[in-house]
Automatic annotation (TrEMBL):
Gene3D superfamilies: 1.10.3730.20. GO terms for cellular component: membrane. Pfam families: EamA. The keyword Lipid biosynthesis does not apply. SUPFAM superfamilies: Multidrug resistance efflux transporter EmrE (SSF103481). This is Membrane protein. It comes from the Bacteria. Belongs to the EamA transporter family. It comes from Streptomyces spinoverrucosus. InterPro entries: EamA_dom (IPR000620), EmrE-like (IPR037185). Residues 3-130, 144-283 form the EamA domain. Keywords: Membrane, Transmembrane, Transmembrane helix.
Length: 285
C-alpha cells in the first residue's frame, strides 16, 4: 500500500507542477494559486460535510494551518520558477524539499548516515551544475533557481506538517480542507496586496475561463497528492514513502519533453540528475 500511494503522489505532483507551470505563463501565478486552491476547497468542503469529518477536529489541525500558510509561498515561488523554466531543471531542484523532513529528524536527535551525507554533497553539486551555466547568462535564469530552492524548502515543510495533522482518513479530509482554506486566505490576501500595488490579477484578455478545467485539475491533483503522501507515510516506512514520492520531477520533466519538446544542455541535465540522485540518497540514508 505504501508503494502504491507514494507512486500515486509522484504522478499527481508531477502533473500538477507541469499544469501549474503552463498556466502561469499566461496567468499571474498568484491568481493560479488562489483559483486552483479555491476549487479544491469547494470539493474538499463537500467531502468533509458528506463524511462528517468535523468530528475529527482537534489541536492537531494547527499543523494543517501551518501547512496552509507555507504552501502558497512555496507554490507561488515554484510556479514562477516553472514559468521561467526550463521545467526539466526546475522540477528536480524542487524535489530537494525532502531535506526538510531529514532536518526535522536531526532536531529530534537523529544523526545522518553515510548515505545522507553523500546525498547532501551530491545535491549541492547538482544545484551548482544546474544553475551555474545560467549564472553567466540572463539574470532571470538565476532567479528561477533561487525561487525553486525557496519552493523546495516550503514543500518539505508542508510534507512534514501535513503528515502530523491527522491519524485517520476522515481526519485527513478535514486537515486537507483546513490547509486549503488557509491557502486561499493567505494567497487571496497576497493577491489583494499585489493588485493594490498595481500588478494585474488577470491576463489582458480577462478571466481565463477556458483554463478553468486546467486550474481545477492543478488544485485537485495537488491536494490529492498531499493526501496520498500522508496515507503512504502513515501505513509504511517513511523512507520508502519519501523515496517514491520524490520521483515526481521525472513526471514533470517527461511531460515537458513530450508536450513542449524541451531540450536541456548536457551540463543542466547532469545537474538536474545529480540533484534528484541527492534527493533519493537523503531519503534513503
Amino acid at each position: 500500500m505504501t508503494a502504491l500511494f507514494a507512486l500515486a503522489t509522484s504522478l499527481l505532483w508531477g502533473l500538477a507542477d507541469f499544469g501549474g507551470g503552463l498556466l502561469t505563463r499566461r496567468t499571474p501565478a498568484l491568481t493560479v494559486v488562489v483559483v486552483s486552491q479555491s476549487i479544491a476547497v469547494v470539493v474538499l468542503g463537500a467531502i468533509v460535510v458528506a463524511t462528517g469529518a468535523w468530528s475529527e477536529a482537534g489541536p492537531q489541525l494547527w499543523f494543517a494551518v501551518g501547512a496552509g500558510l507555507v504552501g502558497p509561498v512555496a507554490m507561488l515561488a515554484f510556479y514562477k520558477a516553472l514559468a521561467l523554466g526550463p521545467m526539466g531543471v526546475v522540477s528536480p531542484l524542487g524535489s530537494l524539499g525532502v531535506a526538510v523532513p531529514v532536518g526535522v529528524g536531526l532536531v529530534l536527535g537523529e544523526r545522518p548516515g553515510l548515505l545522507q551525507i553523500a546525498g547532501i554533497v551530491v545535491a549541492v553539486v547538482g544545484v551548482v551544475l544546474a544553475g551555474g551555466p545560467q549564472f553567466r547568462g540572463a539574470p532571470v535564469q538565476r532567479q528561477a533557481v533561487l525561487l525553486t530552492l525557496l519552493a523546495a524548502f516550503g514543500f518539505g515543510a508542508v510534507m512534514a506538517l501535513i503528515a502530523e495533522a491527522s491519524t485517520t482518513l476522515t481526519g485527513l479530509f478535514l486537515a486537507l480542507f483546513v490547509q486549503r482554506v488557509t491557502n486561499v486566505v493567505a494567497g487571496g490576501t497576497a493577491l489583494y496586496i499585489s493588485v493594490r500595488r498595481g500588478s494585474p490579477a488577470l491576463p489582458a484578455d480577462g478571466f481565463p475561463w477556458a483554463s478553468l478545467p486546467a486550474l481545477g485539475f492543478v488544485g485537485l491533483a495537488d491536494v490529492a497528492a498531499n493526501g496520498t503522501y500522508s496515507i503512504a507515510a502513515q501505513h509504511g516506512p517513511v523512507t520508502v514513502a519519501a523515496v517514491l514520492a520524490s520521483l515526481y520531477p521525472v513526471v514533470t520533466a517527461l511531460a515537458a519533453r513530450g508536450f513542449l519538446s524541451e531540450r536541456l544542455r548536457a551540463v543542466q541535465a547532469a545537474g538536474a540528475g545529480l540533484a534528484l540522485a541527492g534527493t533519493l540518497l537523503l531519503a534513503t540514508g
